[in-house]
Structures are given as structure tokens and as C-alpha cells.
Amino acid sequence: MSNNNADGAVRLPRPRVKSDGSTPLAPRAGGVRWAAVQLALEHWIARRTSMMDIVRRILVEELHVSLTAEQIDPDAALFGTGLQLDSIDSLELVIAVESEFGIQLVERDDLVPTALRTLNSIVDAVIEQSAAAEGEE
Questions:
Q1: How far is the C-alpha of 127 from the C-alpha of 4, rounded, in Å?
Q2: 1, 3, 57, 93 — which has fewest CB within 10 A?
């Protein structure tokens, strides 16, 4: 069964409506639950943005990437045709990020660390490692 209309547009399923009139993504009466979800989301976005800014600063100030922090695309490859970092840069980046956030970014025996593919992948790994470290405390 196709999810496309005759004009090729994708048809989205209708949301389920609960007995209180809300849908899974809409607030319930009173909005208390929704406010908590929205607050948590805003906190997560602010934290992620802050981490992204810190890693961008590291790339510009410590690794001397030839772009401004704002010009660094979060999905651009760090190596090869992207930011063109080399193996020495990767070592310096790992040390700087681990020092800044107090985490272990990559396993020492990981030959191809996926955390070092893009700026977004670094931030994802920092968030994951930070959460793991917070859970251990």
C-alpha cells in the first residue's frame, strides 16, 4: 500500500486521539505534562548547542580550521573532502574534547572511531559519554 497521493505527496497517518481529546504529540488538558516535555526539550537543545559551540571553538582555535565557527557545517566530514583534518589533528581533537568535557571520547583500541566522523557525531558521543558518566556517579 502506497503512502503517496496521486500528486506524489506523502500522506501522513492521522494521529490517534485519546479519551481526553489529546494526541500522543499534543498536550493533555492543563498542559502540565506538555510543559515538562517542552522544558526538557529546550534544555536538551540548549545543552547540545553549547557543546556544538565548544567543539567548533576547538576546531577553529586549537586546530586552526580555515573557517569561522559559524561556517562549520555540523554534518561535514572532519577528514578527507570535509574539513580536511589529518591524523595529528584527530589526536589533538580527541585530547581537547576529552579534556574540555571530562569524558573518554573514543576507545583507545578503536581503529575507526565513529565519533570522529562529523561535528554532530562528536557532540552525540559527548552527550552519550556524559550521560553514562552521570549514571555512574
A1: 37
A2: 1
